[in-house]
Amino acid sequence: MRAAVIVFPGSNCDRDMAVALKAAGADVQMVWHKDASLPDGIDLVAVPGGFSFGDYLRCGAIAAQSPICNDIVRHVERGGYALGVCNGFQVLTETGLLPGALMRNAGLKFVCKTIPLKVETSASAFTEGYNAGDTVGFPIAHHDGNYTVDPDMLTQLDDEDRVAFRYTENPNGSVSDIAGILSENRRVLGLMPHPERAVDEGHGGTDGQALFRGLIGQFANA
Ligand SMILES: NC(=O)CC[C@H](N)C(=O)O
Fold it and tell me: What EC designation does it have (predicted)?
């Protein structure tokens, strides 16, 4: 499986993402945001966490205008996979690839800690390594993680089983405790918590491994 990790000015989880993907068996290429196109044969685009363009305007809003984002949209329209973590989730909402938006945390504070999440569905390449109902611990580190979406889309996300993860102790005010959502075709996942920071005993937990192994395993079996 070939993965591209996108690097913006201000990305700071790009190498963590690459390490997690490689550990699970992916071939990984780093791709600079100014590139007009992804390398040939990319299966997964990973948009990592960080503070792209200093989080000016809205988090992810400037990054979404980078040249590479046009090709990320084409990749997804062709049926390619994309994973956006934290700032990456913010970028994917700003590109329109995922619905909703991430607002300032309800408590107006940056929150940095490992928190429990409930896996809501195992019906996606990203979550098939878990059972629905599992509780996992992933770190969060954000000030704009308060997910919001209009009521009709919220109903649609629930009806279509597209809420991938929910907070069991909501840290940021997200509507319906949503921590991560899937696209309509279930090939794009955006989530605020960081699974790539939970893949090694040295991280204090390995609950993120199943996400990367499950995803990459799909390609091994294809
Ligand atoms: N860790 C991150 O990706 C930070 C995300 C984002 N810039 C925020 O603070 O909300």
Answer: 6.3.5.3, 3.5.1.2
Which of 144, 146, 172 gets mutated to test ligand 1 (max ligand atoms within 8 A of its CB)? 144
Residue nearest to atom 7 of ligand 1 (CA): 51
Q: How far is the CA of 222 from the centre of ligand 1 (A)?
A: 34
- Proportion of the chain above pLDDT 70, given as a percent: 99
Whichever domain contains 80, its CATH number is 3.40.50.880
Containing domain of residue 51, as a range? 2-221
What tokens does 201 get? 């005993």
Q: Which residue in this structure is represented by tokens 């994917």? A: 92
Q: Which residues line ligand 1 (CB under 6 A)?
A: 49-51, 55, 59, 86-87, 141-145
Give the whole-angstrom CA distance, residue 97 versus residue 76: 8
- Number of helices (H), then strands (E), in the chain: 5, 11
Q: How far apart are CA 208 and CA 214, in angstroms?
A: 10
Model pTM score: 0.97
**Phi-psi region for residue 115, left (φ > 0), alpha (ψ -120 to 50) or beta?**
beta
Give the ligand 1 atom nearest the CA of 52: 7
Contact 86, 192 (CB under 8 A): yes
> Is the pLDDT confidence value at 219 over 90?
no
Q: What is the 8-class DSSP label of residue 31?
A: E
Report the number of distinct structural domains present in the chain.
1
Mean predicted confidence (pLDDT) in 21-47: 98
Would the pLDDT of 160 be above 80?
yes
